[in-house]
């Protein structure tokens, strides 16, 4: 036998099922049940997070690492129009031991350069709460829009990402403007709002 059933207190079999199967249906959860076999880009990104969860689970850590995802992966998880990417970038810094474990699946390089509003974590959307060893959040669409606005000063592709992704939806734009007004320096806020309004006008005019 392999431990105690948390549901009825009985013994667990080596396969993770309760030995008291006549009266209890407990089965140890396995995130591989969340594996996506569709072959889609979103599915592949999901599967990398499944592997991250299983890798962390095997380490039996005494805490649950938290990941806030931004960039192309976040846009794909939000079902926005975005080109193919299998890169998963984090907004928050990973601890060194976590980076060594899962660095092949997920990167925190963006955390060193991205500028986010102070409340971005409160707006982030939980992804797959079924994961038992990690917590994963996807940055809110308004925060993704702001990161693209900041990035477009140096990367023209960020302009294309904004225009073609669906991030210029009026509800997203309105929320982004509110975040800029309350969580960013006034000078930065004014510059980014001007860029945002220029992009909105261009889209409305079909430019």
Provide a quick synopsis of the model.
The protein is of the alpha+beta class and about 210 residues long. The chain has helices at about 40-60, 70-75, 95-100, 120-125, 140-150, 155-165, 170-185, 185-205; strands at about 65-70, 90, 125, 135-140.
Based on the model shown, name its key terms.
207 residues; alpha+beta; elongated
User: Which strand order do you get reading across the main beta sheet?
Assistant: 2-1-4-3
Tell me the quaternary state: single chain
Using only C-alpha atoms, the radius of gyration works out to 21 Å
Q: Pick out the low-confidence regions.
A: none
Averaged pLDDT, please?
88
Give the number of DSSP strands: 4
Spatial shape: elongated
Largest sheet: 4 strands, mixed
Our measurement of the CA-to-CA distance between the termini, rounded to an integer number of angstroms, reads 67 Å
Question: What string, H for helix and E for strand, traces the elements in order?
Answer: HEHEHHEEHHHH
Structural class: alpha+beta
Total count of helical runs of at least 4 residues: 8
Beta content comes to 5-15%
Helix content: 40-55%
């Amino acid at each position: 036998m392999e431990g105690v059933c948390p549901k009825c207190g009985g013994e667990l079999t080596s396969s993770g099922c309760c030995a008291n199967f006549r009266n209890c249906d407990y089965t140890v959860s396995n995130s591989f049940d969340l594996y996506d076999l569709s072959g889609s880009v979103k599915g592949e990104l999901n599967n990398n997070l499944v592997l991250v969860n299983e890798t962390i689970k095997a380490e039996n850590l005494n805490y649950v690492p938290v990941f806030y995802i931004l960039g192309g992966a976040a846009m794909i998880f939000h079902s926005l129009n975005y080109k193919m990417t299998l890169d998963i970038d984090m907004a928050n810094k990973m601890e060194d031991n976590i980076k060594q474990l899962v660095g092949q699946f997920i990167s925190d390089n963006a955390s060193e350069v991205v500028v986010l509003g102070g409340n971005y974590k409160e707006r982030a959307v939980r992804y797959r709460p079924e994961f038992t060893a990690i917590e994963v959040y996807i940055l809110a669409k308004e925060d993704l829009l702001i990161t693209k606005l900041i990035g477009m000063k140096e990367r023209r592709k960020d302009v294309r990402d904004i225009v073609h992704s669906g991030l210029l939806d009026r509800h997203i734009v309105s929320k982004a403007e509110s975040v800029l007004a309350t969580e960013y320096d006034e000078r930065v806020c004014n510059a980014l709002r001007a860029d945002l309004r220029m992009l909105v006008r261009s889209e409305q005019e079909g430019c």
